[in-house]
Design brief:
Structural class: alpha+beta
Strand content: 25-35%
CATH topology of the largest domain: S-adenosyl-L-methionine-dependent methyltransferases
CATH class of the largest domain: Mainly Beta
Helix content: 25-40%
Strand order of the largest sheet: 1-2-3-4-5
Distance between the termini: 68 Å
Number of strands: 5
Number of domains: 2
Largest sheet: 5 strands, antiparallel
Shape: elongated
Radius of gyration: 26 Å
Length: 109
């Protein structure tokens, strides 16, 4: 049986470095597909227009209208979303444009 005194000090120092390198490689390999998927999502085309006492912002990808932001003159903004591409827009719990996700049906050309 070997005692810890007989293990060379330089090999003990290499173990944390090897573990850290392995962990870094694993994290990089797991996160790379996610970064590619996010960068492949096209940015929406946003059309803004005034209608009566409110402003409307329409969000489109590939020509498909999937979200409408309604900004009333004296009220809180809200979003209407078409989640399945059938043209029915439903009020959403989304509170800002940064939370919008482009639905899969809108990505089809």
């Amino acid at each position: 049986m070997r005692s810890t005194a007989s293990i060379a000090p330089h090999s003990l120092l290499r173990l944390p470095t090897l573990l850290a390198t392995g962990l870094l490689l694993a994290v990089t390999a797991l996160s790379a597909p996610l970064a590619v998927a996010e960068s492949e999502t096209p940015k929406p085309q946003i059309t803004s227009r005034q209608q009566d006492d409110r402003q409307l912002r329409e969000y489109r990808v590939n020509g498909h209208l999937y979200a409408i932001e309604i900004i009333p003159k004296g009220g809180a903004p809200f979003f209407l979303l078409d989640s399945d591409g059938n043209g029915n827009f439903i009020k959403s719990s989304v509170t800002s444009a940064s939370q919008l996700k482009v639905p899969g049906w809108a990505l089809k050309k």
